[in-house]
Design brief:
The chain is of the alpha+beta class and 191 residues long. It contains eight helices and nine strands. It comes from Winogradskyella rapida.
């Protein structure tokens, strides 16, 4: 009888532990979004998630070359407009290779920090600012220059200083230190 009681207690304990783990994983999976074939977990920082996206290998390489990894792993919060590999491919031939050279680190940093806002701006907050601005909202990026947001139908689009338009294709990818919005074109600061 005693052995049966011990086994019953052990089974009950294991089912409670397993059930709690499954519930925690379900919540984590519910709050995560898929980007580049990988789940982006809100419990991880921007870089820890981005390195898993097969669509952002160029961006991750650029962040490493610009020595911005520690910054984007910092407390934040940050809003990052993350161009995909296809977005970088739209740049003039040789541009990415030129920017990745060590002697061009300052230019690369200027480009990358133009994709970052200090603060946590959800898609809803950006849309609210656009509405308040009668169709346009200006944001000061970490590099100090302006980035303009507007609506194109239901999509939020960004316009850089030269008028290049980039669409947010995946919004509100929550991170432990901010939020990522995936974009389909690289926005460039005035240089």
């Amino acid at each position: 009888m005693k052995t049966k009681s011990i086994i019953t207690t052990a089974v009950l304990a294991l089912s409670l532990i397993f059930g709690s783990t499954v519930m925690a994983q379900s919540k984590m999976e519910k709050d995560s979004k898929m980007v580049g074939g990988a789940a982006m977990y809100p419990s991880k920082d921007i870089i820890s998630n981005a390195v898993n996206s097969k669509d952002h290998t160029t961006l991750v390489a650029a962040v490493k070359a610009a020595e911005l990894v520690a910054t984007l792993q910092g407390e934040g919060p940050f809003t990052v407009f993350a161009p995909t590999n296809a977005a970088f491919d739209k740049l003039s031939e040789g541009t990415v290779d030129m920017l990745l050279k060590p002697e061009n680190k300052a230019k690369l940093q200027a480009v990358l920090t133009y994709h970052v806002l200090a603060g946590n701006y959800s898609g809803r907050a950006i849309m609210k600012a656009i509405k308040k601005g009668n169709g346009k909202a200006s944001f000061t990026t970490v590099n100090g220059q302006q980035l303009t947001a507007m609506m194109d139908g239901d999509a939020i689009v960004l316009s850089d200083t030269a008028g290049t338009i980039s669409k947010i294709t995946i919004s509100d990818v929550k991170q432990s230190n901010g939020v990522i919005h995936v974009i389909d074109a690289v926005v460039l600061p005035g240089m």
